Amino acid sequence: MIRVYSWQTPNPKKVILLLEELGLPYQEIMIDPLSDAVRSDGVLAASPNAKIPAIVDEHGPTGLPHTVFESGAILIYLAEKAGSDLLPRQEPDRSTTFQWLMWQMAGIGPMIGQYFHFTALAPEKLDYPISRYQREMHRLLTVLNAQLSQHAYVVGANYTIADIAIFPWVAALPPLLSVDFTPYPHVQEWVERLQTRPAVQRAYPQPQQP
Ligand SMILES: N[C@@H](CCC(=O)N[C@@H](CS)C(=O)NCC(=O)O)C(=O)O
């Protein structure tokens, strides 16, 4: 059994999407990331960075419980544990998967996260950070659209953990931040195609949130 410190936000959703694809048994422990619960002893034991997601794999590599935090690291750990092709075993697809996974972790997540923060959460609506992160979000969507104009999935012909990492952030943009995907038709098509996957539908019983 895998215990997941989770919430209806994109970083934990990546983990749930992968667990649903892999068919591994899991239990979600819901932790509101805007509450003090992220600093509770239980979360800190698995996630010293006091953020979600984090997992506790009750049967880790040595047979003892093993904890992993940082969603990208969790995706790699679980795909390897399951021996899944969602993390390709062969080059060049393997390093291309890592490349786009790191791109999500360093770009899409932080930039869209800041855009959401300054537009939806900040007490004052400040033009400079809003336009900076909005510009960066559109630049990243342009990069993704160009990649998806060449390939069915982010890495190539097959669905991988790179798609799983990017999807929850990007799919949330039109419903929650009113981002218009008209300039990004390949992104739009990819989102709609992924939404038909049974594992994606199981992972999203409720509307998406950033
Ligand atoms: N790089 C981390 C980011 C995790 C993260 O920022 N999680 C948010 C919720 S989606 C959180 O826990 N926020 C609580 C806080 O910032 O105090 C990952 O990908 O796991």
Summarize this structure briefly:
The protein has 210 residues and is α+β, with helices and mostly antiparallel strands.
Structure description:
The structure is a single chain. 37% of the residues are buried. Helix 4 packs antiparallel against helix 5, helix 4 runs parallel beside helix 6 and helix 5 packs across helix 8. Helix content is 56%, strand content 9%. A 4-stranded mixed β-sheet has the order 2-1-3-4. Strand 1, helix 1 and strand 2 form a beta-alpha-beta unit. The mean pLDDT is 96. It is an alpha+beta fold. Glutathione binds next to helix 4.
User: Helix count?
Assistant: 9
- What would you call the structural class? alpha+beta
Bound small-molecule species? glutathione
Mass-distribution shape? globular
Based on CA atoms alone, the radius of gyration comes out at 17 Å
Terminus-to-terminus distance: 27 Å
Low-confidence stretches are none
Task: Bin the strand percentage.
Answer: 5-15%
Quickly name the level 1 CATH class of the largest domain.
Mainly Alpha
| Secondary-structure element string | EHEHEEHHHHHHH
Largest sheet: 4 strands, mixed
Number of distinct beta strands = 4
Provide the CATH topology of the largest domain.
Answer: Glutathione S-transferase Yfyf (Class Pi), Chain A, domain 2
Q: Order of strands side by side in the largest beta sheet?
A: 2-1-3-4
Mean pLDDT level: 96
The total tally of domains equals 2
Overall CATH architecture of the largest domain? Up-down Bundle
Helical percent range?
55-70%
